[in-house]
Amino acid sequence: MKFRIYRYDPEKDSSPYMKDYDVALEPSDRMLLDALVRIKSQDDSLSLRRSCREGVCGSDAMNINGKNGLACITKLADLREPVELRPLPGLPVIRDLIVDMSQFFKQYHSIRPYLRNEEPPPERERLQSPAEREELDGLYECILCACCSTACPSFWWNPDKFVGPAGLLAAYRFIADSRDQATNDRLDDLEDPYRLFRCHSIMNCVDVCPKGLNPTHAIGKIKEVMVKRMV
Amino acid sequence: MVKRIPVGAHYGLRDWLVQRVTAVVMAVYAVVLFLVLLTQRPSGFEAWKALFACQWMRLATLLFLLSLFWHAWVGMRDILMDYVHATGARLVLQVGVILLLVAYGLWSIQILWSIN
Fold it and tell me: Which residue is closest to A201 within chain B, CA to CA?
C-alpha cells in the first residue's frame, strides 16, 4: 500500500518534505496505525505519537488524506491511495507527525475544566438524578485529541484568543453539570468576542470528531444559556 | 505595557443576537418586497415613485437598511478582528466603518423621504 508522509526534522531538514512509502501489509493490518507501525519498523526515523491504539487516548491524531482523524480507528480499506499523512494543521510541528499541543491545552485549561462547588463534599458523592446525568452525554466523552480545534479556521487565526471547539465543549460540560456552582462565572468568562464568539458555526469540528461529538451544538447551548440569562 | 495578550472584553452576545435579529428583518423584508412587486408589478418611474411614497413602505425600507448596516457592522468587525492585527490600525478601520455606516443610514433617510 502506498503512503505519502510529511517529514520534518528541524535538526536536519531545512524545510518539510513529503516522503513516499510502499509497504507490504499483513492481513492483520486493518487500521492506519497498524500500517504506520509497520512503516516505522522499516524506517525508524519516522516519528509519531500513539498509545492506546483503540481510540481512547487521542495521541495519534493526524491529518489523513486532508481530514483530521485518529490513525488507530481509521480503516485502511476506506483510504484512497496514496494515503497522504500530515501533522494536525495549525499547530507548530515538533517533528514529522508530532505537533506541539501547548496552545491547545492552554485554551482547555483556561475554561477551568473541573467541578467548582463551594459546599463541603458529602460523605460519599455528589448525587445526580438520571436526567441530570443525561445532560452530560455527548460532552464528557471528549478525549482531547485536538482533531476538532485544529480543523477550525477560527482556531488557526486566533489560537491564543479563541478557546476552540474542544475547550468550549468542555466548558459546556461543566455549565451543564448540575453539581457545578460556577455557571455565572463560566458564562462571564466566555462572554467575549474572541473566547466564544469567534465560532461562526461552520461545523468543521463536527465533521472531524472521531468520537462523533458535536461541539457546535454545545457552543449553541452556551449561547442559549447566555441569552436566557440576559433576556 | 503588558506583553501578554489580554482577552475578556465581556461583550459579544448582544452582537451575536443582533446579527440574527437583523438577518430575520432582512429576510422578512425581502419576502414582503417580492410579494409587493409580484402583486403590484410597478412599471415605470411613476409606479415606483407611488410605491415608495407610502409611509409604511418607507419605514419598512428604512428598517431593512438599518438592519443591513448594523448587520454589516458586526460582520466587518469580525473580519477586521481576524485580519488586522495592529490595534491602532484596527481601531482606525473600525471607527471608519462605523462612520461610513452611520453616513449611509442618514443618506438612506434623505433618499427615502425625498420621494413625494
Answer: B16
pLDDT at residue number A111: 96
pLDDT at B58: 94
Confidence (pTM): 0.92
Q: Which of B5, B10, B13 sits opposite A160 (nearest CB)?
A: B5
ipTM of the complex: 0.87
Q: Are A36 and A47 contacting, i.e. CB atoms less than 8 angstroms apart? A: no
Beta bridge partners of A5: A19, A85
- In DSSP terms, A17 is beta-bridged to A7
Directed axis angle between helix A215-230 and helix A183-190, to 10°? Answer: 100
A162, A204: one domain = yes
Q: Which residues does chain A have within 8 Å of residue B7's beta carbon, measured at their own beta carbons?
A: 161, 192, 194-195
Among B14, B15, B16, which would you mutate to test the A interface (most chain A Cβ atoms within 10 Å of its Cβ)? Answer: B16
Say how many domains are in chain A.
2
* Residue in A with minimal Cα distance to B4: A160
Q: What is the CATH classification number for the domain harbouring A51?
A: 3.10.20.30
Question: Using CA atoms, how far apart are residues A71 and A86, in angstroms rounded to an integer?
Answer: 11
Classify domain B14-113 at the CATH class level.
mainly alpha
pLDDT value of residue B7: 86
Q: Would you place residue A164 in the very low, low, confident or very high pLDDT band (cuts 50, 70, 90)?
A: very high
Range of the domain at A85: 2-99
